[in-house]
Each structure stands twice: as C-alpha cells, then as structure tokens.
Amino acid sequence: MSDRDIIAGSVLDGAALTVDQVCAVCSIEQEWIVRRVEEGLLEVSGTSVTEWRFSSAHLRRAQRMRALERDFDAGPELAALMADMLDEMDELRARLRRAGLG
Amino acid sequence: MEFKDYYQALGVPRDAPVDEIKKAYRKLARKYHPDVSKEKDAEARMKEVNEAYAVLSDPEKRAAYDQVGKGYQPGQEFRPPPDWDSGFEYSGSGFSGQEAADFSDFFSELFGRMGTGRGTAHARGGDHHARIALDIEDAFTGATRQISLRAPKIDSSGRVTLDTRTLNVKIPKGIREGQIIRLAGQGDPGLGEGTRGDLLLEVQFRGHPRYRADGRDLLVELPVAPWEAALGAVVPVDVPDGILKVRIPAGAQSGRQLRVRERGIPGDPAGDLLLEIRIVVPEASTPKAKELYETMARELAFDPRAQAGARP
Fold this sequence. Notes:
The structure holds 2 protein chains of 2 kinds. Chain A has helices at about 20-25, 30-40, 55-70, 75-100; strands spanning about 5-10, 10. Chain A is mainly α. In chain A, α3 (about 55-70) crosses α4. The radius of gyration of chain B is 29 Å and the shape is elongated. Helices cover about 25% and strands about 25% of the residues of chain B. In chain B, α2 (about 20-30) packs antiparallel against α3. Chain B is α+β, with helices and mostly antiparallel strands. Chain B has helices spanning about 5-10, 20-30, 40-55, 60-70, 95-100, 105-110, 135-140, 225-230, 285-300; strands at about 130-135, 145-155, 160-170, 180-185, 200-205, 210-215, 215-225, 235-240, 240-250, 255-260, 275-280.
C-alpha cells in the first residue's frame, strides 16, 4: 500500500451535518426531518433549516425513529418515545458492560 | 445464486392479502428487532425479514417476484430469465441505501433497478454514511485502517449491482468516539457534470478490557493492593502511549478516581486520564497470609460497616 492509496478526510466535530446530508444518509425527505424537529422529537442545533446542524448522535436517532415508524407503522411521537427508551437501554447496557456485568 | 422464498421468510401463504403480510412482518420485526431481541441470530433474521417485506409489501415487486419465482424451491439454484425485468420500473422501497445494501444478491439481481426513493433533481451525488470501528489506542497514535463498503452501483445498462469497495483511511491522532470523518468525493457519483457525494464515517471504539473513552477522557481501572491504598504508593500504569508512574495517596478507597491532567486522548486541549481505584484483596491461601490477616483482625479496631446507614 503506497501513501497515495491512503485517503485522509476531515474530522467533523460535534453537530456538523447539514439537513441535506442527514436526508441523504437516511434516505428520507427533508419534510420528515423538519416536522420532527419542529415537534421537538428530534434535537438539533441552529435556528433556521439551513443553519441546522446534526451530530452523529442526532443522525443515529433519526435513523432509529425512521425505522420504528416504518417497521411498526408507529406515529412519530410513539417512535420518539421508543427511541428515548432504546437510548436509555443502550446507556444502561454500556454501564453494565463497564461494570463487567454485561 | 440461491432462490429465496420470501413467503416462507414471513411465514405467510402465497395468496396472503397485503394486511396479513403487514401483520406477519410487524410480528417478526418485534421478535427480531436488534435493539431488543434476545434471539441469537436476530440481526441476520431481521435483514431477511426486511428484504422479504420490501418485496412482498410492494405490489409491483411482488407481482414480478411471483412471476419469476414460479416452480422454484427455497435454496434452489436460481437464474433469472435473460429479459426478465423488461417492463418493470421499480420505485423506492422505504429502506435506506444502507439497509438495502444488506439485502441479498438474489434481491439485487431481481430488483436492481430499484430507485433509492428520493428525487434526483440534485446533480451532486448522494452522501453515504458508514461506521468505522477503531481501537482506543488508534486515538493515541493515529493509524491507517482498511474499510470495506458495499454500495449500490449503476452499470452501463442502468442496472444497479452491489459493489464492494475497499478504502484505506487515515485515522488522525486525537480522534474521538462520535466524530465523523468526512471523505470528500467518496460518496455516490453525481449526475451529468455533478460532483461525487461524500462518505461520512462515524467513529466508534471497540470494547477494550481495560480502557474506556468518555469524550476526550480515558478511563482506566487501576487495581491496587490494600497496603498500597492504605499507605500510599507510586505504581506503574499501562496506558496506550506507554507506562505512567502514578502516585496513589495514602488512605485511597475503592471507587475513588484519580485524575491525571492531559494524559487522556491527545488534542488541543488533551483529555484527562481518569484512574479508578479498585482494591484487590490477596487470598489467605498460605499460613503466613492467614496469620497476617488474623493479626490485623485482632489489632485493628476496624468495622467497615460502622458508617451511618451501612449496617442493615
């Protein structure tokens, strides 16, 4: 492997993804994101849609909510509640693992 | 390529109405949902179930599948007729590119023309997202890591096939969990003169038996002997970038954290190293050890349950 073959990228720190990037990655319409941000189901930093920036945690949450809505025909509020609970479960499982109990 | 029986995957008869398919899918999605399922092969089964549902829930795809699948048994070697997909134009499946990339070769052979379900007004290619699993040590030294990505690719006849790409990615020193490495121009090709999209790699650290990262800070468990904790000591600690000598203050207790400034994940500012003290008690396995414990029991007026509230 020569140095030429190695790709160096730029590191995006914290909330750095635009709404277009999130839509592209999750295969969702912008309208889907806008509605959920406006209803407070999805957090974001920035005030207007063009200024919104998402972190990788926001991105994961959007993917999770999207899959729950699709798989179970769940309403956005229910999918968000479920996503909250799954996030909490992830956190508890990580703590169990750290304590050597997972 | 093996024929896949999507009806069998969902456990429904071939003439099942749409409602029944939906019901069966939801039941299985609950059973195998990777976040909650206790089943061993939950993730693999969920992919199968998603793939089956992507086909059977879509009237166009289901009709095409029924037509081509006549007379095939599951697992049987499958070859689609040469002109099989003429006349079909598939719309989106509701699954993201990332999820669809997990579908089988059988699926991509049959439904290769499936769109991504998004408008194609933008000339710029789409951005892709993937996770990259790194060792915590990589954050201390920097590294080059090879990743393989499966992504849909359009060939000259307009069919979409799954393409495996291998990239060697430079991991900069100081990388942290949750950060995204953006590789410009490594996403989807653009339309016409449009530029390629980007590849966004989300950084995750693999589990490590001793190290754990919390943002910039590195948490390390530090086992100490009871006399080191009681009397204080200077002990060597293995950290990703070498060995550190750390002073344990006299009277340290289990669970107490020692902070060593700027010896966590490098950067500006660097994170801290947090050492969590765990007192390890030697076994009383020899007469000498027993004697020492008995002397302590006799001569130290010590009741670990004496604190308020500690005694039941």
